[in-house]
Write the structure tokens for this entry.
Amino acid sequence: QVQLVESGGGLVQAGGSLRLSCTASGLTFSNYFMGWFRQAPGKEREFVAYITSRGGATVYADSVKGRFAISRDNAKNSMLLQMNSLKPDDTAAYYCAASRLGYSRSTSGYDYWGQGTQVTVSS
């Protein structure tokens, strides 16, 4: 069965950094586009970033451009999100997701989801 497992969340001061990881199993990882999404309490799940199946291209939400970096290592079935210059508005549960049909900025474009990891940024 397909599993996506996120880790690396925690509590950090504004201006600090965190690195999230997502490890996949039960799928041919290199066949999937991968994305990061986040969801704050009372808000819709929103797009953060995605990366193509071979890692050749990345796309970011405007709110995180220049601060976050998405990457993947297909040999390890893993994906990373490096988050720098964190702001209180970045506070959310962060989810990794896998899409076999192609890139998407919408949650509906993804086939599999992890359970999330909490990121809290204090002011």
In short: The CA atoms of residues 61 and 88 lie 17 Å apart.
